[in-house]
Description:
Helix content is 42%, strand content 21%. By secondary structure, the chain is an alpha/beta fold.
Amino acid sequence: xxxxxxxxSMVALLTPAPVLAQEDFRVGMVTDVxxxxxxxFNQGAWEGIQAWGEEHGKTEGQDFTYLESHSDSDFVTNLxxxxxxxxxxxxxxxxxxxxxxxxxxxxxxxxxxxxxxxVVDMPNVVSLNFxxxxxxxxxxxxxxxxxxxxxxxxxSGVEGVVIDxxxxxxxxxxxxxxxxxxxxxxxxxAFNDPTKGKQIAxxxxxxxxxxxxxxxxxxxxxxxxxxxxxITADPERQLWVIGVDRDQTDEGAFEVNGEARNVxxxxxxxxxxxxxxxxxxxxxxxxxxxxxxxxxxxxxxxxLAEGQLSEETLALVExxxxxxxxxxxxxPEKPE
Length: 336
């Protein structure tokens, strides 16, 4: 009898928890400090939740919504407020939320959470991660084959495990194509400081750099702004920005003397929206299951936008993509 009880207990632990009927299922999201309109991964995740809501005839604000964080001190408060709102799952967007999520998840073991760009080993948390370094490597390949200069810029927000992957992958991609090219790396110290991003970009573009890859959230808006301002002052200049996390073509568009221009060469892609949408659907159908779900080039969780890349560069990017997927190239996750 005791063995039967023990076996039943083990089965209960291994079986995904049941969820509410689909018509009652609700999703909440807490942003990083970049905000909901960061033109990057917060916005991408929210667009995925909106698509999920449209797919199931849900009502925004009632069945799904977001809580916006303006500083790190908002994380715990927003997560607790989301818990009080009784969502079936709450997504925390960004590795900076991990310590706060661990605290709130431990205090609320019956509430289910998902974290993007972090790993939390708890039975009520699913971790949703990306091989950003693979997409960044392709961005480096594209940059090295597109620039006319000997130096290429990389601007990011705050150093950390996730951003290490962007830097390491990008530098490796550049070096794979053009070993002699230098990658100039600068950190703004924040993901929500466009003014600082603009200042760093100004310094880089003055150093005979014509292309900058930013992995910095809204800080990168300043990079786009500086490139456009410099071209407006001197329309003969050819300057480029590589966007991050979603296709940032729209962020590069502007006009000079009535002529349409665009400084976005391409963008590394992180399909946050698809991952959040897919897991929400999975949870509705089969229940919650903790673990670490990793998206990469092979399953199209990351990638590179076509942008304004030449046919030659696109072919080269595809060649390196296949080498990464096959395992011929293993992209580093940490800078040297």
